[in-house]
Amino acid sequence: MNFTKPILEIIRERTSSRTYSGVSLDENIKEKIKELLESLELKSPFNSQEGNIRFELINVPEFNPNEKKKLGTYGIIKGAQNFIVGAVKKFQFNREHFGFLMEKIILHATDMGLGTCWLGGTFNRSLFSTKIHKKEDEIVPAITPIGFSVKRTIKEKVIRRFIKANNRLLWNQLFFKHDFNTPVHPEEIPDYKELLEMVRIGPSAGNKQPWRIIRDTERKNFNFYIVKETGSYNQFPPLDIGIAVCHFDLTAMDLGINGNWIFSEPQIPRTENYKYIISWSI
C-alpha cells in the first residue's frame, strides 16, 4: 500500500492523539487497516527475514466488560475503541525492527486521516499480549490506539504541556560531524537538510529524542547512535531509533536520494555515553 501524499507532508502532519470519538471504526475502514497490516512488507534495515513480526487490529467492543476496565491506559487515552498491537520475536534488534515498522504503520494511518499515539509503557501488556496470542519467544513492545480523534480536552492539553509534546531538540543537539563535539548545521548539508529535519521532528518516548547522528564527510556516511540510558527507560531508545531510521529511510526514498543501510561502526573518540546502532551509506 503506497502513501497518497509526499512523506514529508505526512510526517509533519502526524501528531499524538489521546482523545477519540468513542465509536468503533466501521467495517470498511477496519478492512483497509487489516489490508495494510497484511500487505506491509515486514522488513526493515534491522532484519531481512520475513515472518518474525506481526501486527493485528484489536477491537475493544469485543472485549468482555471486565477486560474493558483493564486496558491500563490510565486515563491518558480516552474513547479509543480500536488498537493496533504487534508482537516481535526475540533477536538482537527486535525493538529497533518493531519501532521502524510500527512507525511506518502509524504514518499510513495518518495518511488515511486516522489518529494514533505510541504507547510503550502505559497499557496492560498482559491483556494485549493475550489478545494477540503472544508466543513464548515474542515480546509486545508497544501498541497504538487508532481511530478518529476529537478536539483535545483540557486534560490532554495539560498532559501535552507536561510532557513537552511539541518540543524538539535543536539541530546542534542531535546532528554532528566527525565527533560529538562538532555540530553540523543545516546550511552545511543542504542536500540532506530535509532528511535530518524529518528525523528531528519524529516522536519518541518521553519526547527525549535519544538518537544522535554523526556525519562522516570522508566516507559520506550518516552514523546513528542512541544515548545510553539506565533504569526502566532503557527499553525505549531502541524503539525510538527505529522511528528515526524509518523517517530517514522513507524520506530518502521520497526525495530520490540513494543509499543503503550498513552495520559498520566508525572509529570515533569519546563515545562511552553513546551506543552505535547503524549507518546509512550514500
Could you please describe the fold and organization of this structure?
The structure is a single chain. This protein is α+β, with helices and mostly antiparallel strands. The protein folds into two domains: 7-158, NADH Oxidase (3-Layer(aba) Sandwich), CATH 3.40.109.10; 171-281, NADH Oxidase. The protein is 32% helix and 18% strand. The chain has helices spanning 7-13, 27-39, 65-68, 94-111, 125-131, 154-162, 171-174, 193-200, 237-255, and strands at 53-59, 82-89, 115-116, 138-139, 143-147, 175-177, 211-216, 221-227, 260-262, 274-281. A hairpin with a 4-residue loop joins strand 7 and strand 8 (221-227).
Secondary structure elements and pairings:
Layout: H1 7-13, H2 27-39, E1 53-59, H3 65-68, E2 82-89, H4 94-111, E3 115-116, H5 125-131, E4 138-139, E5 143-147, H6 154-162, H7 171-174, E6 175-177, H8 193-200, E7 211-216, E8 221-227, H9 237-255, E9 260-262, E10 274-281
Parallel strand pairs: 6-7
Antiparallel strand pairs: 1-2, 2-4, 2-5, 3-5, 7-8, 8-10, 9-10
Helix pairs in contact: 1-4, 4-9, 8-9
